[in-house]
Amino acid sequence: MAIDHNSSAETPLENPFSGAGCFFCGQQNPAGTRLRFSRVEGERRQLVARWTPDQRYRGLGRVLHGGIQSGLFDEIMGWTAHHFSQGPGVTAEIHVKYLGPLYIGDPLELRCWVTESHRRKVHLAATITDHHGRVCAEAHGVYVMMNPERFHQLVGTNR
Fold first, then answer.
1. What is the per-residue pLDDT across 43-77, written as a single tens digit (0 to 9) for each?
2. pTM for the whole thing?
3. Tell me, which fold does domain 45-155 have in CATH?
4. Which contacts of 96-99 are long-range, i.e. CB under 8 A and separated by 24 or more positions?
């Protein structure tokens, strides 16, 4: 079933880790992507981000590097799991399918939604769509949610 990306209202999210220097969402990281996420209002628990990659993120030719695409999925899945589970979690697994090229300089859109939750495990699906509306990559992942103290101990942040 196709999603009508233009009919849903979006609510921008505050970054709870804005000062942490994250490569993908840290707004002060000069080498990073500086992603910003919004909640999509509607029937699915879904987040969205839009981004235009520059030359720093290229693979061969004009193609957006596949490792960066995988990292984009990890980031939006982590944000989605955190936002809808009201707590931190870590990546357990991500499976990526590359369906077509994404190019440097072309805007793209990331979408992620919760497919199911069981106890501490959150299952997610995500897509990256090019500026023509084509899904060029898709992923499925599992995140393990944990208490904040254990999370900060595991990732090495001081709280």
1. 788 999 999 999 999 999 999 999 999 999 999 99
2. 0.91
3. Thiol Ester Dehydrase; Chain A (3.10.129)
4. 96/66, 96/69, 96/70, 96/137, 96/138, 96/139, 97/137, 97/138, 97/139, 98/66, 98/69, 98/136, 98/137, 99/135, 99/136, 99/137, 99/138
